[in-house]
Design goal:
Layout: H1 5-22, H2 28-35, H3 39-67, H4 69-89, H5 93-121, H6 124-155, H7 160-163, H8 165-179, H9 193-212, H10 221-243, H11 257-274, H12 277-287, H13 292-316, H14 322-340, H15 353-376, H16 383-412, H17 421-449
Helix pairs in contact: 1-5, 1-6, 1-8, 3-4, 3-5, 3-9, 3-16, 4-5, 4-8, 6-13, 9-10, 9-16, 11-14, 11-15, 11-16, 11-17, 13-15, 14-15, 14-17, 15-16, 16-17
């Protein structure tokens, strides 16, 4: 049993950082009531975590290589636990958003080290088992998030969705310290600080401008100035990466059309599949009067389907080329979004369930082959960087999606969820329809750009494993 304690430590950290992507959704109305948060403030509570995680994921992988994976993992756990405590005690929206940003920093450090720790700790068949369990933990986090968040919020208060992380982080630190041996740090990897700063400024500026566009016209300086800064920072990032001897992201990867298609597909999948959850949760609780637990139960079937389908695909879907499974998955997500765009002024939450099930099916079909295919689309020495790029694109897609669909929602219902029932229904339908169109665009991009091929039936344990790939 002792040999599996490192897996327990890594699993605890992965579960925490992934569940915190979505667990806040069912708690948003309670946060708004207690903290007096505005609609844009709630968007930032959701968005800043995914944004920070996306912006720092590639860079923290280099830090983990440079200073040692165990050290960075323990540091990430500690920071995540302290930030979670800060979120639980936050007396204002601004401090809560700050705490969520710091959570994202800790999560990026944890994420960058998890797979490397498993890869160096386990060998052969044990490694295959460890990675299988780790993938199941990812699915379990998605499935458990809505109901755990609902139970904690309804019975203990929204603060406990953060406070519960503190003892879990402490336990994970202790187990990691006692059971995982220190690894050798590489003193030859340079840290691309200019690239990380430019990428972070670009992502943050774009997200800020899009969120503010829901409250002000595009001619407002609060909208176009951040977007312009984002464009300048993106151009600077490209220049920095092209000239850097140790770039955070090797732009030569984008010469591989399959890689480009998979990254676009991953970003648009997250945008289309998950970005409407905050607004659906606000509608169900603020308009329909559902409690957090009931809201979590409405969302949970989708999460369960997205957990079960990859298990079935792993058993029976080896003969399906990633190009086809990802394309079909995105089309299911599009169908699910269009199915949800049928809300009427007098609709109940049940109107969303068929579409949610379709989205869960689409995500289950798409996400595992995305991760495996991107590894085979680039040279082996760039596999870790490619996996990190895919994960960053997925988190950035979620962050931008919450901002984009929030702006669409606000334009159709200026009063937010407190407006008339008809305007809120129209806003939901419009936003879901936009998400559906985006999923179709993602499906077309994957089908056109990803080269048709059949996956080789090789054992997972025999392949080089990236430190940054997530199922």
């Amino acid at each position: 049993m002792r040999k599996w304690w490192p897996l327990v430590a890594v699993g605890l950290g992965a579960f925490m950082l992934l569940i915190d992507v979505t667990i806040v959704n069912v708690a948003l109305p309670d946060m708004a009531t207690d903290l007096g948060a505005s609609f844009s403030g709630l968007q930032w509570v959701v968005d800043i975590y995914a944004l920070t995680l996306a912006a720092l994921l590639l860079g923290t992988g280099t830090i983990a290589d440079r200073f040692g994976h165990r050290r960075v993992y323990i540091g990430g756990l500690t920071l995540f636990g302290l930030a979670s405590l800060g979120c639980a005690l936050a007396p204002s929206t601004e401090l809560l958003i700050t705490g969520r940003a710091v959570q994202g920093v800790g999560a990026a450090a944890m994420f960058a080290a998890t797979l490397a720790l498993l890869s160096t700790t386990y060998q052969g068949r044990d490694r295959a088992v460890a990675f299988g369990v780790w993938g199941s933990v990812n699915g379990a986090a998605a499935a458990a998030g809505p109901i755990i968040g609902g139970l904690l919020t309804q019975h203990l208060g929204w603060e406990w969705i953060f406070a519960v992380n503190v003892p879990v982080a402490v336990v994970a630190v202790v187990i990691t310290w006692r059971t995982i041996a220190p690894d050798h740090a590489s003193r030859y990897r340079r840290f691309d600080l200019p690239g990380m700063v430019a990428f972070t400024v670009s992502a943050a500026g774009l997200t800020y401008g899009l969120i503010h566009s829901g409250e002000a016209p595009w001619g407002d300086p609060g909208v176009w100035v951040p977007v312009a800064v984002a464009a300048v920072a993106l151009a600077a990032f490209v220049v920095i990466e092209r000239r850097s001897a140790s770039p955070m992201l090797d732009l030569a990867l984008f010469r591989h059309r399959t890689f480009v298609g998979l990254v676009i597909g991953g970003a648009l999948l997250s945008l289309a599949a998950w970005s409407m959850f905050p607004y659906a949760s606000l509608w169900m609780q603020s308009r329909l009067g559902l409690g957090p637990v009931a809201t979590g139960l409405v969302i949970m079937p989708m999460s369960v389907v997205s957990f079960v389908v990859p298990l079935v695909m792993g058993r029976f879907g080896h003969a399906i080329a990633p190009r086809h499974s990802v394309t079909v998955g995105l089309l299911f997500i599009a169908a699910g979004s269009f199915l949800q765009a049928r809300v009427q002024a007098d609709s109940t939450a049940a109107v969303l369930i068929p579409g949610m099930l379709c989205i869960g099916l689409g995500a289950g079909l798409s996400i595992p082959p995305l991760s495996s295919a991107v590894m085979g689309a680039v040279p082996g020495e760039r596999a870790g960087m490619a996996g990190g790029a895919l994960n960053s694109a997925r988190q950035l897609g979620l962050a931008v999606g919450v901002a984009v669909l929030g702006a669409v929602f606000s334009s159709a219902a200026p009063g937010g969820v407190t407006g008339s029932a008809a305007s809120v229904a129209t806003a939901l339908n419009t936003s879901y329809a936009v998400a559906g169109v985006i999923a179709v665009v993602g499906a077309v991009a994957v089908f056109v750009l990803v080269r048709p091929s059949r996956p080789a039936p090789t054992d997972v344990a025999a392949k080089p494993l990236s430190r940054n790939v997530v199922a």
